[in-house]
């Protein structure tokens, strides 16, 4: 295929779910096209991509505050009761010598979400249209989508710790409101990344010549 020819010029549509490239020549005759492989609705670009991605990101930023303020877990062992926030839990694991678990929770609860906030903010605000910048932004979007799934490690750690304590009859462990907020942050940041359509940036590059 000659360099510079775009998929939309050839009436080709890529399924955003399974990636299959479909013939879109009938889209003028049919109101809605569906992927022949998975049945998803096909579209040339994601509808209101920038607005939806920004809204999800702002909602995640707002919920990240109570996620760190409210306790994520309540424990009662040998008569001692405690409610732990994310940062408090990291410090407790570190001081008890479980630095590996503390590091895991820090990466999943602090490093990954903050990285996603910064990366998505850059993608949404940056308007550079040079080819090198476009390639870098596309790689950054793929990176954000990839690390998003690891954010749920913190929720998983809380569930495992609670299950171990309950199973061994060592005490009582229960999740608290903070973990609900954090889970919502993870979902919203993933939706922000999935809603962002990197192809729109390439469209602007073509428009600017």
UniProtKB/TrEMBL annotation:
Keywords: Cell inner membrane, Cell membrane, Membrane, Transmembrane, Transmembrane helix. The chain crosses the membrane at residues 55-74, 101-125, 146-165, 177-196. GO terms for cellular component: plasma membrane. The keyword Protease does not apply. Coiled coil: none annotated. It comes from the Bacteria. It is found in: Cell inner membrane. PANTHER family: INTERMEMBRANE TRANSPORT PROTEIN PQIA, INTERMEMBRANE TRANSPORT PROTEIN PQIB-RELATED. This is Paraquat-inducible membrane protein A. It comes from Dyella dinghuensis.
């Amino acid at each position: 295929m000659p360099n510079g020819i775009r998929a939309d010029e050839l009436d080709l549509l890529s399924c955003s779910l399974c990636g299959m490239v479909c013939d879109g020549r009938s889209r003028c005759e049919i109101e809605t096209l569906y992927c022949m492989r998975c049945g998803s609705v096909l579209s040339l670009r994601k509808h209101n991509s920038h607005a939806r991605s920004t809204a999800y990101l702002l909602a995640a930023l707002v919920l990240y505050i109570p996620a760190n303020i409210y306790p994520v877990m309540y424990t009662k062992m040998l008569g001692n009761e405690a409610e732990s926030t994310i940062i408090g839990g990291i410090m407790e694991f570190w001081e008890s010598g479980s630095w590996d678990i503390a590091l895991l929770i820090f990466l999943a609860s602090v490093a990954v979400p903050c990285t996603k906030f910064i990366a998505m903010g850059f993608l949404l605000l940056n308007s550079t249209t040079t080819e090198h910048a476009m390639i870098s932004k596309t790689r950054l979007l793929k990176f954000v989508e990839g690390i998003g799934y690891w954010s749920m490690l913190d929720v998983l750690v809380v569930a495992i710790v609670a299950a171990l304590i309950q199973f061994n009859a060592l005490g009582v462990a229960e999740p608290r409101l903070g973990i609900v907020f954090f889970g919502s942050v993870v979902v919203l940041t993933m939706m922000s990344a999935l809603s962002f359509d990197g192809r729109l940036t390439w469209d602007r590059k073509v428009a600017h010549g």
